[in-house]
Amino acid sequence: MQSRIAKLTRKMREAERKEAAAVEYAAAVENKRKQDQERFNKVDSDYTAKFEESVKSGMDMAQKISEPLKQVMQQLKLKQIKKLLS
User: Fold this and answer.
1) DSSP character for 86?
2) How high does pLDDT run on average in the chain?
3) How far apart are CA 44 and CA 51, in angstroms?
4) Domain range spanning residue 1?
5) Looking at the 3D structure of the chain, how many domains does it have?
6) Whole-angstrom Cα distance, residue 12 to residue 10?
7) What is the rounded distance in angstroms from the CA atom of residue 58 to the CA atom of residue 65?
8) How far apart are CA 80 and CA 36, in angstroms?
């Protein structure tokens, strides 16, 4: 009888240890998931900000180049027209 109680007690303690280990593992996995999500959100926002700045810079550059380019194109057209009329 005594050995049977000891055996059941041992099984119960082992089950409790396994349960505690599973809970600890689940908590560690959840913590890692939260850290990864936070890191992703930061990287994503940094990437978005850099991309927006790059697009804005490109647009600014295109606008700066646009007017002189229009003038050059207009001069070329005038030269071609004069050449055709000559």
Assistant:
1) -
2) 91
3) 10
4) 1-86
5) 1
6) 5
7) 11
8) 62
SS3 category, 1: coil
Tokens 């000891």 belong to which residue?
A: 6
Is the torsion defined by CA of 69, 71, 72, 78 positive or negative? positive
The dihedral built from the CA positions of residue 40, 45, 51 and 53, taken in this order, carries a sign that is negative
Q: pLDDT tens digits, residue range 53-77?
A: 999 999 999 888 888 888 888 898 8
Distance between CA atoms of residues 36 and 31, nearest Å: 9
d(CA 4, CA 12): 12
Which two structure tokens, joined as six digits, stand for 22?
A: 């599973």
User: pTM score > 0.70 for this model?
Assistant: no
Percent of the chain scored above 90 by pLDDT? 45
